[in-house]
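User: Sequence in, structure out. Go.
Assistant: Echoing your sequence, followed by the structure tokens.
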Amino acid sequence: MNRRRFLKDGVLGVGASALAGAAAQEAELSAQRVTKWDRVADVVIAGAGASGLCAAIMARDEGASVLVIDQNHDIGGHAMVSGGRIPLGGGTRLQKKFGVEDSADKVYLDHTNARNQELRFSDRDLVRVWADENAPTFDFLLDNGVKFDEVMPTLVNEGTVPRLFRTVPYSDDLNVTINGSPGSGLVRALEKSARAKGVEILLSHRLTRIVRESAASGRVQGITAEFQGKPVAIQARKGFIIATGGFTSNVAFRRMFDPRLTEEYQVAGEPWSRQPAEGEMLAMALGAALWGTSNVASEHGRTITKTRHIGARYGYENLRWNPGSPMFKQAGGSGLTVRTYQDVVCVNQFGRRFWNELDDTYGYLNACVGRQDDSETRGKLNGGGPIWAVFDADGVAREKWDPKPPNVDPNGWFFTAGTVAELARKIANPYQSKPMPPRALEETVAKYNSYVDAGKDPEFGRPGLMFKIQKPPFYAAWATPILHDALAGLRTSARSEVLDIRGQVIPGLYACGESAGGFALHGLPRVTVFGRIAGREAARVRT
């Protein structure tokens, strides 16, 4: 091929194809452009959890009009059913009340300490601004009606200064608090303040698109949402804030970080609130980058945790579902709270023990997620499948359990039988890929009982073997680990602006809460601070 023909048919031909593709993409975008906005506000926020409500109040305090949407039928997100633990320091009013001396610099140093394995991979720029905003954010919560247990704060996160205060439940009405959890005292107080200040909240609105001037450039102009099957277009004159809560409920998304996290793992906060990653995915479609992805699999912190409540689908450590909760029908059971795993043996879907049950480290969790029976070389290889806690009548007595509904959910999550073999035959569950072999479970229990007699566990080194599993009836309770925190998310600046894959700001787009990455801190202290920052910065944009 001569040079002239190469330029014409090769390079220029490829260029023409690229231009044609870009033109088609632009034509498609033009067809989707919003020509009429149904609603307009200065700042629009997706997500009415702790982060989104903080953002809404702060934006209103800055003088912006604010509209919040949420896919749920009520506000609060995961924070509603949380433990309400808020370890913010730097010299808050409550710290001073109890004579605790603290500073933003101490907060920063504690959360960047190289010995802190949970936090060592965090973005230092984000930690610095978070530390500086600790005390103002805690006092902001107080000013907006959040009430705390006013007792001496305690240490947390390997800190050197007591900072942990806990919110109190908002009321005794489960229809208001959903499950009576302390986190209700945070989000209901913020909701009350937000509404009083003029924030408009649209519930049952699902975010469907982020509208930008063009596919790869320009400002974010607003969003589209879906309400009762109908589209709603909402213009954001100053900025749009993603506070949708992370990705833990999205199996495909979470498997980008750890391919083993398949569909069987329970998710903290469900069935009350889900984290389907819609905000992250829509931002990524505009070129947004992810950040701090190593934190998901760093094997420190609370990406995945051992369950405390067995025998029901949902066993989030701070949440045991109350039968009086309006969500109890969906939850299915409260679960049996385990005082000591000395009273059970844990087996995989093949009826085999796989690890020391007393271990609370990532060693146990890795065994749950990845352990397969020696004979299992085909079929579903990723994901460890269901984990079952097996125990007997003596174990029930020691734990002082009542193994009947509503404490357990017999619809696939709890089984009982007169013999170990019969128990194995009864186990059926959406995630139990094949029947549990009765002989395998019998052998497992017999072998474990022999270890109790010998006083030694040669397989897994479990210490202090105390109790045989021998008295009928026998029980099998769902004990599969829980996905807890979304410790990665969208890349943001110190002003909570979303950055693209080149490190450039996407104008008019902000993210906070578990939708934002880069800082592997668990829970409410991260989401409240960055929610407040996002609301403030979006409201200050000049239009």
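User: And one key feature?
Assistant: The two ends are 55 Å apart (CA to CA).
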